[in-house]
């Protein structure tokens, strides 16, 4: 019963320095998963999130603070995440919203919503997939075989 189901696994959770993303990261950590946190935060907020995930049981925690509005930064974030080791789990949690009547919606805000909520999710999956689809990985759940 005390077996850690995700021991030896590594997850990237976007938008995870607070809120739902942090709760997802802590839940994965409780199962023994190493975590790559991501978000736009102050150094103090990032360290607080890191401490919370370590406290939940993660064997290792990295923090990346790339801006998902920028495709180049998404690329850099994925390169940094993958340079530290393979990813077993990718949670595209980052997202923003802006509620306004269509006539009042600023175009720049619309562009940010599309960039973060859609394009960044597409790019993280596109960039993680080649490593996750390598021989020995499960295509059904995008996870490499568990080794002990």
Q: Secondary-structure blueprint of this entry?
A:
Layout: E1 10-13, H1 19-30, E2 34-38, H2 43-55, E3 61-64, H3 71-83, E4 89-91, H4 107-132
Parallel strand pairs: 1-2, 1-4, 2-3
Summarize this, please?
The protein is of the alpha/beta class and 148 residues long. The chain has helices at 19-30, 43-55, 71-83, 107-132; strands spanning 10-13, 34-38, 61-64, 89-91. It has a single domain, classed as Rossmann fold, CATH 3.40.50.720.
Care to describe what's here?
- This protein has 148 residues and is of the alpha/beta class.
- The protein has a single domain (10-132), classed as Rossmann fold, CATH 3.40.50.
- It contains 4 helices and 4 strands, in the order βαβαβαβα.
- The chain has helices spanning 19-30, 43-55, 71-83, 107-132, and strands at residues 10-13, 34-38, 61-64, 89-91.
- It has a 4-stranded parallel sheet, sandwiched between helices.
- It is globular and about 55 Å long.
Keywords for this entry:
148 residues, alpha/beta, Rossmann fold, four-stranded parallel sheet, 4 helices, 43% helix, 11% strand
Q: What's the β-strand tally?
A: 4
Report the sheet-strand fraction.
Answer: 5-15%
Q: Which percent range fits the helix content?
A: 40-55%
Total count of domains = 1
Strand order of the largest sheet: 3-2-1-4
Category by helix and strand content? alpha/beta
Q: Give me the strand/helix succession.
A: EHEHEHEH
Form type: globular
- CATH superfamily heading: NAD(P)-binding Rossmann-like Domain
Average pLDDT metric: 91
State the oligomer.
single chain
CATH topology, what is it called? Rossmann fold
**CATH top level assignment:** Alpha Beta
* Total of DSSP H or I helical runs spanning 4+ residues: 4
The biggest sheet amounts to: 4 strands, parallel
> How widely separated are the two ends?
17 Å
How large is the radius of gyration? 16 Å
Q: What is the CATH architecture term?
A: 3-Layer(aba) Sandwich
Stretches with pLDDT under 50, minimum 5 residues: 139-148
